[in-house]
Amino acid sequence: MNTENESLIDFPCDFPIKVIGKSDSDIDEHVVGILLKYVSTIYEGAVRSRRSKNGNYVALTITIKVTSQTQLDQIYQALGASDRVVMIL
């Protein structure tokens, strides 16, 4: 049984972060810039994007190497603070 402080994720691991953002010309670079403050590298091919039907939003999936729950929490907080990010999964 897990306590509240235990993570269900085994670290380090490759973790896919899903971000829905406003469809700006550089939303990919904006999100990657935030992530690079917390991870050392984002590998080529690690960023996938898909525009919404009407083109108002972009869904990004970015796979990164995370080393701890604290690091992951900081990443989610930083992404959530961006006014260009609508949702993080």
CATH topology: Alpha-Beta Plaits
General shape: globular
**Helix coverage percent of residues?**
10-25%
Could you name the CATH homologous superfamily? ACT domain
Tally the helices. 2
Describe what this molecule looks like in 3D.
This protein is α+β, with helices and mostly antiparallel strands. It has a single domain, classed as ACT domain (Alpha-Beta Plaits, 2-Layer Sandwich). 24% of the residues lie in helices and 33% in strands. It contains two helices and four strands. A four-stranded antiparallel beta sheet has the order 2-3-1-4, with helices on one face. A hairpin with a 5-residue loop joins strand 2 (47-51) and strand 3 (57-66). The two termini are 25 Å apart.
A few lines on this structure:
It contains two helices and four strands; from the N terminus they run E-H-E-E-H-E. With 89 residues, it is of the alpha+beta class.
Strand and helix layout:
Layout: E1 13-22, H1 27-35, E2 47-51, E3 57-66, H2 69-80, E4 85-88
Antiparallel strand pairs: 1-3, 1-4, 2-3
Which labels suit this protein?
89 residues, alpha+beta, Alpha-Beta Plaits, 33% strand, globular
